[in-house]
Design brief:
Elements: H1 2-10, H2 26-32, E1 39-42, H3 53-63, E2 73-77, H4 85-89, H5 92-96, E3 102-106, H6 116-119, H7 132-142, H8 144-152, H9 154-164, H10 168-175, H11 177-198, H12 203-210, H13 217-239, H14 251-258, H15 263-281, H16 286-300
Parallel strand pairs: 1-2, 2-3
Helix pairs in contact: 1-2, 7-8, 8-9, 9-10, 9-11, 11-12, 11-13, 12-16, 13-15, 15-16
Bound molecules: zinc ion.
């Protein structure tokens, strides 16, 4: 969405009657490729939990320099909710009075972590996730790889749709071959963990999966989210076997792959994973976190 706005503001064919980007002029194309000098992106580093004040100050300084080639300069801050309060405060003044022709876009997954003083100076646009049908239709319309994968490997294609969890960007990333292989591998590890949990006392099998959990914070966070999605599916199908699932293609597939796990055990494990996920976001040490999660899962697997 931020890229589309940036393209709309810089499109060579923009007119008062057509405010959408054409998508094919040199400006639009370079913006989509991330290759346009007047559209800048700030993201937190992958292994960091926060986006610090120094990086934000450098970004802010740049806004006062003159543009390289276009009338509109766009500054996009991804992971804006990860900005420290100090970093957010560094933006207050520039958000109130941005330099001429500068647009600032903040992208956040959780608005609760954005200071009220920042929110009151911005225009808020809520983005909703897409359902699987919409996601599939979109993916098939933009990508020849998606169309051929749907025919040659429908299970992997469905795996991508389920893992993307309503996010267009994530679906597109997962289509990339290496990423989609990693995604498949991770899905089978999660299933291996759940089937170990289904058998009481399969400690070694539990440990063998959790010891392979990613050591990078951002990746671990995603793995934990997927594990929670899978647990959620297993819990809700206990009450409604036809309920809509988010990790497994359907309820029957979930039971076939993971066996019959008692609800109390599932809920206890869900709580442990959810707690670990919270700690992961709040910058806890990753290896301690995995060790403590492993012991909680092993305890809960006895319930
Ligand atoms: Zn254009």
């Amino acid at each position: 969405m931020a890229t589309e706005i940036a393209a709309a503001l810089n499109c060579e064919k923009k007119s008062d009657s057509d405010t959408l980007p054409c998508g094919s002029c040199s400006c639009c194309r370079r913006i989509y490729e991330g290759n346009f000098p007047d559209v800048k992106l700030l993201q937190k580093k992958k292994d960091k939990a926060t986006l610090g004040v120094e990086a934000v100050k450098d970004f802010r300084e740049d806004m006062f320099l003159s543009s390289t080639e276009s009338e509109s300069k766009i500054y996009i801050i991804d992971d804006a909710e990860c900005m420290t309060p100090e970093a957010q405060n560094a933006l207050l003044k520039v958000l109130e009075e941005p330099p001429k022709s500068v647009s600032i876009i903040l992208l956040a997954k959780e608005c609760d972590r954005i200071l009220t003083t920042i929110k009151s100076r911005t225009q808020y646009i809520a983005m909703s996730r897409f359902d699987d049908g919409e996601l599939e239709k979109w993916l098939l319309s933009i990508s020849p790889e998606a169309r051929s994968m749907k025919v040659s490997d429908p299970a992997r294609f469905m795996g991508i749709i389920m893992s993307a969890d309503g996010r267009l960007g994530q679906a597109k990333n997962l289509l990339n071959k290496r990423l989609s292989e990693e995604n498949e591998e991770e899905r089978s590890e999660i299933i291996a963990l759940l089937s170990a949990i289904a058998r009481k006392g399969a400690y070694a099998d539990i440990y063998s999966v959790t010891s392979d959990f990613p050591s990078k914070r951002a990746e671990l966070q995603l793995t934990l989210e997927r594990l929670m999605n899978a647990l959620r599916d297993l819990i809700i199908i206990k009450y409604d076997p036809n309920a809509k699932t988010v990790f497994f293609p359907n309820g029957r597939d979930a039971t076939n792959k993971c066996g019959d796990i008692p609800v109390r055990r599932l809920v206890a494990i869900y709580d442990a994973v959810n707690e670990a996920h919270g700690l992961c976001i709040r910058n806890a040490n990753v290896s301690n976190l995995i060790a403590s999660l492993t012991s909680k899962i092993r305890l809960a697997a006895n319930i």
